[in-house]
Automatic annotation (TrEMBL):
<feature type="domain" description="HTH lysR-type">
    <location>
        <begin position="7"/>
        <end position="64"/>
    </location>
</feature>
<keyword id="KW-0805">Transcription regulation</keyword>
<dbReference type="Pfam" id="PF03466">
    <property type="entry name" value="LysR_substrate"/>
</dbReference>
<dbReference type="InterPro" id="IPR036388">
    <property type="entry name" value="WH-like_DNA-bd_sf"/>
</dbReference>
<keyword id="KW-0804">Transcription</keyword>
<dbReference type="InterPro" id="IPR000847">
    <property type="entry name" value="LysR_HTH_N"/>
</dbReference>
<protein>
    <submittedName>
        <fullName>HTH-type transcriptional regulator PgrR</fullName>
    </submittedName>
</protein>
<dbReference type="InterPro" id="IPR058163">
    <property type="entry name" value="LysR-type_TF_proteobact-type"/>
</dbReference>
<comment type="similarity">
    <text>Belongs to the LysR transcriptional regulatory family.</text>
</comment>
<dbReference type="GO" id="GO:0003700">
    <property type="term" value="F:DNA-binding transcription factor activity"/>
</dbReference>
<dbReference type="Pfam" id="PF00126">
    <property type="entry name" value="HTH_1"/>
</dbReference>
<dbReference type="InterPro" id="IPR005119">
    <property type="entry name" value="LysR_subst-bd"/>
</dbReference>
<dbReference type="GO" id="GO:0006351">
    <property type="term" value="P:DNA-templated transcription"/>
</dbReference>
<dbReference type="InterPro" id="IPR036390">
    <property type="entry name" value="WH_DNA-bd_sf"/>
</dbReference>
<dbReference type="GO" id="GO:0043565">
    <property type="term" value="F:sequence-specific DNA binding"/>
</dbReference>
<keyword id="KW-0238">DNA-binding</keyword>
Length: 295
């Protein structure tokens, strides 16, 4: 009678990493082990199971049906582990420990750091891991516990509250007031930002050859406008705060967004998350006129 293979969670992680990264070298680097260890362990797993988990091709490692089955099991196990972590975090007895918060870099620098400073005074047993990122992180996998995001359509799998509208307008350098906007070059957010709607806004207002620079961050866009590279759209709470910039018109309705404070449903009742979200909302709601371009 054949003995059952003795599989561990690390075996499933290895198979998942190899499948997702297409080979042993990148998988080993991702897992923090050397290539020979990964090679030896994969051979042991396949020997124990009596099947090949991957076809070794010149282009990389391709999962066999057995490999696909193990990969699916690994994904379910990873989801269970992440769910357990959220459940434990949700049952903390007091607002103490670490909370991971993500927001756009410009928002972190201009508005969120003072809020966090006051939060830590009120809750000295808390620690904040701040992740300044333009893209959305996976709150289901606990890449972050709380997200503060500009969005017109927040993910359906998250919960939270709308804090404010976010107005955008076109800005230029304040010392170029006599120059006509239609005679200036433009700077723009890249096509990869917000589904390309800001890039489309700029394209509709000038010729392609007059778009001098594209960037993937609002911080970079503000610096580009301030440097005189061109005019461009900015959130009003960013542009209005810069004395060297001026609005070139009213807020643009088609660029209107919303500011959301979001978390995963499994975390919303945890004391750490609830303490931060309540505090952040209390601090940010009075800034609504600034976000909406009215202050």
């Amino acid at each position: 009678m054949n003995a059952k293979p003795d599989l561990a969670w690390d075996d499933f992680r290895l198979v998942k990493a190899v499948a997702e990264r297409g080979g042993l070298t990148r998988a080993a680097s991702h897992l923090g082990i050397n290539h020979s260890t990964a090679f030896r362990r994969l051979a042991q797993i396949e020997a124990g199971l009596g099947v090949r988990l991957f076809e070794r091709l010149r282009t990389g490692y391709l999962p066999t049906p057995a490999g696909e089955a193990m990969l699916a099991a690994a994904a379910r196990m990873e989801a269970d582990v992440a769910g357990f972590g959220r459940a434990v975090a949700g049952h903390a007895r007091s607002p103490a420990g670490e909370i991971r918060v993500t927001a756009a870099a410009s928002f972190v620098r201009d508005l969120l750091i003072p809020v966090v400073a006051r939060f830590l005074v009120r809750h000295p047993a808390m620690r904040v891991d701040m992740i300044a990122a333009e893209g959305a992180l996976n709150l289901s996998q606990r890449d972050a516990d709380v997200a503060i995001r500009a969005s017109s359509d927040p993910p359906a799998n998250l919960v939270g509250r709308r804090l404010s509208g976010i107005a955008w307008a076109v800005y230029g350098r304040a010392d170029r007031e006599t120059e006509r906007p239609d005679a200036q070059r433009w700077v723009s957010l890249a096509e990869t930002v917000a589904g390309g709607r800001f890039a489309a806004f700029v394209r509709a207002r000038t010729e392609p050859e007059r778009i001098a620079l594209r960037l993937n961050t609002v911080d970079g866009l503000r610096e580009a406008v301030g440097a005189g590279i061109g005019i461009g759209p900015l959130p009003c709470y960013v542009g209005d705060a810069c004395p060297d910039l001026r609005r070139l018109g009213e807020p643009e309705a088609e660029l209107q967004a919303e500011l959301w404070l979001l978390t995963h449903p499994d975390l919303r009742h945890g004391l750490r998350v609830r303490a931060f979200m309540d505090f952040a909302a209390e601090a940010l709601l009075p800034l609504r006129p600034r976000f909406e371009g009215r202050g």
